């Protein structure tokens, strides 16, 4: 009888401990009809951090949920994960239109910010510990969100993305789009000009700016490594930090880490022999975020 009771108890506990990716149908204003999915671990920390994780072109929330080790870290550390999903523009994020590139302007960016607001309110999460990461189109949107909404995001990690406003004015921001000058690293601006795109997205804003990590493969031909150099120039100007030094072998042998200032606000990572691939070191990223 005792063994039977213990078995029933164990089964009930297994059912109780069943965190999974869940869709949230109503999270607030959603100008571009994107979708919200959320992962809330079984054991949520008090006043938890929130990470927005953005899929690449052609991707989905469920694919990106399975594509990194973030959920297991969420289980260990009790933070909440938001997985936005766009069904538009070949599942690529709107990083080219003025709406997303303008604070409170609309577009995918505002929809994602409203997902954050929903999560902060529902789960009593910490508004000072909201972060964003993504790969490819998700990396591009990471830079867009950090630029348009510095009052929402404390830090970002952009993998194989492009600088804020690099795609501005293009008809689309997909690999099949007719204008690939941005993704091919052919748009040239000074660091101050790149930085001004960010500042002009939220005129009059004088608060803190998100700390940033920029990752790129040196053999990437879809989104050229020059794009990461432009993003580093942009954020270096916005954050007021200059290149300090290179460090070989961080986080692994194929990488070179670029440290700006003391490294607390901006770092870049370039990987030898790596093409267009998700490569961000999750443990290093979380440490940079302060998780």
UniProtKB/TrEMBL annotation:
<keyword id="KW-0964">Secreted</keyword>
<dbReference type="GO" id="GO:0052689">
    <property type="term" value="F:carboxylic ester hydrolase activity"/>
</dbReference>
<comment type="similarity">
    <text>Belongs to the carbohydrate esterase 1 (CE1) family.</text>
</comment>
<dbReference type="InterPro" id="IPR010126">
    <property type="entry name" value="Esterase_phb"/>
</dbReference>
<keyword id="KW-0719">Serine esterase</keyword>
<keyword id="KW-0378">Hydrolase</keyword>
<dbReference type="InterPro" id="IPR029058">
    <property type="entry name" value="AB_hydrolase_fold"/>
</dbReference>
<dbReference type="GO" id="GO:0005576">
    <property type="term" value="C:extracellular region"/>
</dbReference>
<protein>
    <recommendedName>
        <fullName>Carboxylic ester hydrolase</fullName>
        <ecNumber>3.1.1.-</ecNumber>
    </recommendedName>
</protein>
<dbReference type="Pfam" id="PF10503">
    <property type="entry name" value="Esterase_PHB"/>
</dbReference>
<keyword id="KW-0119">Carbohydrate metabolism</keyword>
<dbReference type="InterPro" id="IPR050955">
    <property type="entry name" value="Plant_Biomass_Hydrol_Est"/>
</dbReference>
<keyword id="KW-0732">Signal</keyword>
<comment type="function">
    <text>Esterase involved in the hydrolysis of xylan, a major structural heterogeneous polysaccharide found in plant biomass representing the second most abundant polysaccharide in the biosphere, after cellulose.</text>
</comment>
<keyword id="KW-0624">Polysaccharide degradation</keyword>
<keyword id="KW-0325">Glycoprotein</keyword>
<dbReference type="GO" id="GO:0045493">
    <property type="term" value="P:xylan catabolic process"/>
</dbReference>
<feature type="signal peptide">
    <location>
        <begin position="1"/>
        <end position="18"/>
    </location>
</feature>
